[in-house]
Amino acid sequence: MQNDARTDWDERIALRSDEEREFAFPDLDPPKEVSAVGGVGQVTVDWSPVDGASGYLILRGTGERGPLEPVDHHSGDVLSVPSPPYVDTTVTPGTPYRYAVASVPEVTVLDGRPSQTVGAVPLVADGTVPTVELTVDVVAEGTELARPWVPMIGSERLSQLLCKDTTGGHEIGVELEDALRRMRDEIGVRTVRAHAIFHDDTHVITESGYDFSVVDTIYDKLLAIGLRPVVELGFMPRELASDPAKTVFEYGAIISPPASYQRWHDLVRALVQHLVDRYGLDEVLTWDFEVWNEANLEVFWSGTKAEWMQLYDVSAAAVKSVDSRLAVGGPSSAAAGWVDDLLDHAKRYGMPVDFVSTHTYGSPPLDVRASLERHGFSDARVLWTEWGVTPTHFNPINDSVFSGVFLLRGMRSAAGRIDALSYWVASDHFEELGRPPRLLHGGFGLQTVGGLAKPRYHAMTLLSRLGPVELPVTLSGDGGGSLIEAWASRDRDRIAVLVWNLTLDQTKADGTPDLTRTVQVQLPGIDPSWQATATTLAIGVGDIATAAEGLPDWPADAELADLAERSRLVSTPLELHDEAVELSLPMPSAVLLELRPRRD
């Protein structure tokens, strides 16, 4: 590709056909080996993976010949899952069901051929709690433990770091900075991805040219915390917009294509060159430049797919014109859309894609590595630059224990196949749909206004306590490997085993007794003199929503301090018996089991 900043991009684009090419997805075979096993309150569906699949759609029907419909776990977003097994808890105990699984090459392709059907009957609870056996190979050599939560976290637009307004009596800029610093210092997060670096409040275009002084102040603050930005190139500056009346969010971000692609190119190039001049090339080579946000949704892009592909080309060329080693990517899409479209387009026009970025909510992130391979971009990184339990702001599930255990499941699923899984977002100082009306309002943040930890932040804390070496585990019993999952690790003189109980079914977010399990943790080879502790996240433990019941919308400082104490994680000692520990796990809940040499 020729990196020529003098190229007139408006002329180049005018020479292209404006026809939008639709990528023809491969016709994937369905899984050949499918099983369904009924347990108390659940059916576990398992299958053999299929080459080329980014995910799988679970289909279910009743009766011998009734229609098969996708199982809906009520996440409000993509229903496909990246890998087996799948636990279905949307069932009625005692009812016979038929299941099939369809391979999904991309989430918009919903007509995949189903596998042969298999039958299962969820069991009726008889008053006894089913047992799952978990065996941890504590003496194994192990492998490096992947940490997909460390590379990136999401945030409200970073200009809010400069905001001196208050919400509920709390200064926005100060608390947003504190929340990001806490993500860095306690969890180890390295970068922050946010919208709107070109929004009107950064004033990057002046009558005489460009002014990046506000951007400088923002990034100086971020770097002083020890974090680096993921530079999302958007939204459209008013001075460049073809239709500045097209906006999104309470703060009026402009979502229209540029009136001139050449002027957009020049702005992007000027910003990137300025960043290199200010912070040094070696530093900026560690940053990522992401083109726009969720252009596959009309709410975020008023143009066509072809116009966004043009925006990508222009943006990528502008970034690379400063230095070809700088990283640029996209499509930063909703629901994992447009990944194949971008890669197909980039291959045809010789454009660079250093990383693929996309977003989903309510399920573990899909596996887009098959898309990279079929288009010849297998070296590109995979950045899930937004992910969470729900795409819906002001949703009570964001404040729940369920959401914290969901975070654990997603991070475990992403480990080893996704370079960054960025939870959206760090703090409830977030105002896309308006500022928070009360302390607990179902906000996206891991931390409240006032800086208190929600269950999702507690989940991050549990993850951060895993050691560097991953140990093999095996699970068996009713829901073992589907309802009950585990992640085990070793760190010098410590074994840490994170165990959780979760269904993706959000109608069960408040828990149900049928899904409680007793987990027998077998640790063959463990020193019997070691001491064990269990740190618990469950409804009523580490649970800010339950602890805050009866408090006013905006608690006073003393009430906040008391709430922080009553909603913290709790650790208790356990006894090892015959190289084993027994845990009781309701759904939803998680326990971090840590074993260390006894200190006299």
Helix percent band: 10-25%
Structural class: alpha/beta
Query: Terminal Cα separation, in Å?
Result: 66 Å
Report the biggest beta sheet as strand number plus sense, adding barrel if it closes: 8 strands, parallel
Q: Could you tell me the radius of gyration in angstroms? A: 25 Å
Low-confidence runs (pLDDT<50, min 5 residues)? 1-6
Cα shape:
globular
Strand content: 25-35%
Mean pLDDT equals 95
Number of helices: 12
How many individual β-strands?
32
Strand order of the largest sheet: 10-13-16-19-20-21-22-23
Layout of secondary structure:
Layout: H1 9-14, E1 34-39, E2 42-47, E3 55-61, E4 69-70, E5 86-88, E6 97-104, E7 118-120, E8 131-136, E9 143-144, E10 152-155, E11 166-167, E12 170-171, H2 172-187, E13 191-194, E14 205-206, E15 209-210, H3 213-225, E16 228-233, E17 247-248, E18 253-254, H4 261-279, H5 281-284, E19 288-291, H6 305-322, E20 327-333, H7 339-349, E21 355-361, H8 369-375, E22 381-388, H9 401-414, E23 420-423, H10 455-464, E24 469-471, E25 473-477, E26 484-491, E27 494-501, E28 517-522, E29 531-538, H11 544-547, H12 557-566, E30 570-574, E31 580-585, E32 589-596
Parallel strand pairs: 8-28, 10-13, 13-16, 16-19, 19-20, 20-21, 21-22, 22-23
Antiparallel strand pairs: 1-2, 2-5, 3-4, 3-6, 6-7, 8-25, 9-24, 11-12, 14-15, 17-18, 24-26, 26-27, 27-32, 28-31, 29-30, 29-32
In a few lines, what is going on in this structure?
The protein contains 12 helices and 32 strands. The protein is α/β, with parallel strands linked by helices and 600 residues long.
